[in-house]
Structure formats: C-alpha cells, structure tokens
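Run PTS IIA-like nitrogen-regulatory protein PtsN through structure prediction, thanks.
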Amino acid sequence: MSNPVAQRRGGLFRMSLLSKILPSGNVFLDFEASSKKRVFEQVGILFENSHGIARSVIFESLFAREKLGSTGLGQGVAIPHGRIKGLKEATGAFLRLQTPIPFDAPDGKSVSLIFVLLVPAAATDLHLQILSELAQLFSDRSVRDQLAVLTEPGEAYKLISTWEPYAGF
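Sure, done. The structure for PTS IIA-like nitrogen-regulatory protein PtsN is below.
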C-alpha cells in the first residue's frame, strides 16, 4: 500500500517534512495584507494564538531575517522564516494573498504565495531541510499554478501536505 506523502525513488523512501509542520488550520486563501510588514504582523497574531508566543517576538524574528536579505524566491513566492525562542518544534503557515505585494524578490515580481516558517531558536539542520523542501515545492510551476486558483483552504492544504519531495541525489 502506497503512502500518499512518501515517495520511492532509487531505493529511497522519504516523508515530506511539510506534512509534519503545516497544521490544516494554517492555510489561508485570499489573505489581505498590503505589505510585507502587515503579513508579518498578522502571522504574528496567528502564531501567538496557536502557540502562545508573543506576536512581537515573531514579527521581530521575521523582520530581522528579512533585513539580512529578501526571502522572496521569485515567481511570486516568498518563504519568510525565523528562529523563535520558546518554540518547541518547527511550524508553518501558507498564505495566498488577495493582492500581490512587493517582496524584493530577485526577479522583481510581486508575491502572492507565502509560506511562513518558524523554527526553534536552537534548530539544527532541520530548518534547512524544510527550506529545501519548500524551495522544491514552489519551483514546480504546476504547484504554483494550482495554489493560485484553488478555492478551498483544504484543497491547498492537501496539495502542500501530500506533495512528495524528490529523494534523488
């Protein structure tokens, strides 16, 4: 029997890390935010409510990381991320913005697909593996195209959480 969130290629069997860090309630379509700052403020509230970590801590972590260089990937995608003291395990949220916003992406395009990743302050290589999976996921044009038009958060959640990472070398 096949596991929908795993893939077998070249003898390797691998589970998607994204399926472990994205709660179904953290998928938002047609999210309203007029700027990067507003996105960070609103996800700060979201994670404050779900994890009990002050929104200001989340905002400041995301903003500080952004000052090091834009987390805009290009093709309308951004993956803002930050280390959060007191967070026990990595967590994320997916937002599809109602109106694309500037994000200083390398291609200069505005962003409408955002995956916010929060990791514990002492995170090891796990957060780099998650970022790698996110980059793989969003480099797939068919995934981006589907996420742009899906009408139900549950559909977007299913697409992201059952996505299968490439396990080859």
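Residues 19-162 form a domain with the Mannitol-specific EII; Chain A fold (CATH 3.40.930.10).
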